[in-house]
Amino acid sequence: MVGTSGNTGSGEHITISYAGFNRPWAAWISHQLEQLGHGTTMLRWDPPADSPLTEELAGLLAAEGRLLMVLDDWYFKLGPKTHEEWTSALQEVVPDHSERFAAVSVATQRLPATASVLRPADLRDLDAVEANRRVLNRLGVPAAKRRPADPDANAPRFPNDPPEIWNIPRRNNRFTGRDTALEELHGKLAGPVPGLGQPLETRIALYGISGVGKSQIAAEYAHRFGNDYDVVWWISATNRGAAREQLAELATRLGLPVGQELGDRIRAVHEALRVGRPYRRWLLIFDSADDMEQIEDLVPDGRGHVLITTLTRDWSGSGSAQEIEVLPFTRIESVAYARRRAPRLTNMEADKLADAVQDLPLLLAQTAAWLDANPMAPKEYIELIRRGEPSLVGIRISTDYPMAFQTSWAITLNTLRERSPAAVELLKLFAFFAPDAIPVPMLARARRGDLPEYLADLAAEPISWNTALRRLTESTAVRLDYQVAQTTTDPAVETAQMHRLYHRFLRSDMPEDERDAMSATACRVLATADPQSPSDTRTWERYAALIPHLEPAGVLDSPETSVQELLLNCIEYLRVRGEYRIGLRLCEQFLSRWRTRIAPTQRTMLVITHQHANMLRRLGRYREAEAVGSAIVEELTAERGPEDGSLLRAQDGLAGTLMALGSYSQARDIFDSVVRGRTELLGPEAPLTLSSRSNLASALSALGRYEEALTLFGEVLLVWERELRSRHHLTLGAVSSYARVLRLLGRYTDALSRQEMNVRLYHQVMGRHTPMTLRAEHNLALCMRRSGAVTQADALMADVVERSRRVHGPRHPETLMMQANYATFLREHGDLGEAKELGEEAADRYRTLVGEAHPFTVGTLGNTGLVCWEFGERDNALAIAERALSGMTEAVGPDHPWTLGCALNAAGARNRVDDEESAAELSRDTLERAKRVLGDTHPLTLSAKTALADDLRALRRGQEASKLEQEAVQQLTETLGAEHPHTLSTRRRRRPYWDFEPQPV
Questions:
Q1: Using CA of residue 980, residue 986, residue 989, residue 994, what is the dihedral sign?
Q2: pTM listed for this prediction
Q3: Closest residue by Cα to residue 201 from 269, 303, 317, 315
């Protein structure tokens, strides 16, 4: 394979010969030479097995210019060629052309003695400056006389300096061939001309059958071309939850300012990769991404590169990625691999073995490894595979697998059973954990009673345990990943990996009773590992490690109480972590298995059903959540008393869903009933009772009954402050709710003072990027706005909206709430065009989320009418204002503060189209209702008074208008201050308006 680089000057041409394994060294040396004006050609060394080495080595002389050989462990193994062949070839070719040949060594092992004729310069363990000096010295090339300019951002990285961020499985030192596929992959990602223009592709899907080597190619690509990148990150995409955890971990490695929420961290990663900050050159590999729907939203955009391995063509079929099909080995690759893996094989025997396994890399690895470890004659072994009779070695094999696989695997299991029966049983147990990360330490530390006696004995003896693990790796079905503990130099096994083909086969081919026993063992091990504290952030890493194993272990099918408790804790962890989609999937899987087998009112079913509704509600699927919640409430009501704890919990959850749907009166009634029930059952200050009292206060606030809500929030706050102190997250939430209602009552100074302190504590306790902190900061921004601190409010509100998009996503109810409020702020203080765009988008998304008649849809629609005022679209503004008034009256009634606000805006719209009589009539009615509902001095009441004065003035009833105006100014001065924006606007006779603010649900 030849890759010619540009010639930047008149220096002599140098051809660099390298084994593909060490391409990074060749690329770096090429760049160093080009910087000095030399032309270079990179020539990949891969001599055919059937070609004499002397001819291949002499063939290098046909290349242009000097020859620089980059020698490493692989250079002498390719072919494969023996030491004797190398000795003969070097002695015959090099001496007569010594002026053409030069070499450098990057080998980790001692080079053959015959390599000394090349006088290689050793580059191992050097920094870039010294390595460059030795390369130039070996070639007799003078170094640059002056310091080079700043390095090119696209220049190859020095191989001893790995990418800034690196997370790739360790390199497979037996990787063979695939050079064509790797070069095609690099060509598509690197572009037709390196450093110029866009790459041909930025997303590539390696597609092929199981066992064809997709993951190995992806890993080798990362190692071989990794120095082209600043970030190289591997994600095991078999399980969505594990994939999200691994992608979120990249946020920490990138140094992004994020909190613990996975959604926040993932969106921050996506944004950082999209804009190329802090790193522009990145490669993400999604391995085993067979379910595109589960993984596609995790794949980032940007100018970096994404590599996907998959069994399906979904990625290319949907246009999400360009496809490269991975085929089995070529016969030349098969023969070369088999002879390296089992050196005793001749070319002919390797060819026959490859033919027997149809050149499939996984099967070739399996069979060659067995031949390397066992004395059976290759001819006899190959004949067994060709005959396809696994029964000859006493193994029962499913007919669902290729015959060569059946037989080779049967022989391997039989040999393992003879040498280490315990290793075979351990291998079977491995099949009941996620194949990408089998938790070996968890098994080693399992309670004795959790394991069968023979495995418990094995785990109790470290030497026997490690011997069994070594036996498994010799079969090539299992690969171990080690981690060196800080307190010792002895490597400890961190995880094991098993190819999914073996994983599926082991499970499917066990007798049912053995499969059930292994599943029960795996479930017991996982249950013992349960931290039993899903709300404690210190246990989150452990829960994240448990979740990928729930399905393969059979946790969802287990009737054991401790195992079901593990499942409940994992689901609760997903809820508090914000992983609603994964939590919903687990709930639905459990329910589909058990709905017909146990009563809906059994404890586990009740908790799962409650969480099911929770997850649906958190995902904005409110009608579905309502249906689930209503059904379980009906079931429990029919068979249990009104003070039953499970019924109260179900009613509390249903009321929360009704709040989201805008059914505030119904939700209030249910919350009130739950409060009374829990007070009698648990006491007025029990945590569950306080939670329900807080929910009731939220319902009262949504109904516009602000004074009652404030009183109830205040009572809850006092208890939390007494029992939990000020820094507990429940206390912080109660303070924020209390300050929000203070603001809704027009007590802006008090609200701002409390909320500023609240946000400071949130930053200290929870961090800046949790959903609760964002909600608190949003409330603070609104308090600033209402208090007249416009500049501070602008900066904070814009920041909160952007961070909410990252934490929750652009369509989440929390984001819509913040976006809608920011749009109204921009209409008054910022960019009208942006205000219009954001406001209309929020209204449209609310319409999709909760329907046309929901108060939030109606209210945000009304906000868009105010923008029409500013653009001079009076008729459109009037139509929208009237629709909002009618819709809000229908949704929450004529006396709700939201309806009064819509009426204020509708009266203003009528006034602007010269319908003064109708405007005055509506303003007078609004004023009277506001006095009755909110009191004489509430800001909305005083706005209605100011609006009526404006209408009366338009009707030439000046004396009456002046009296109302003077009263409004006096009352605003007394309540808000003479310099408050509301007071100043009234003095300047500016028509008041009302912004609808969606509330947290």
A1: positive
A2: 0.75
A3: 303
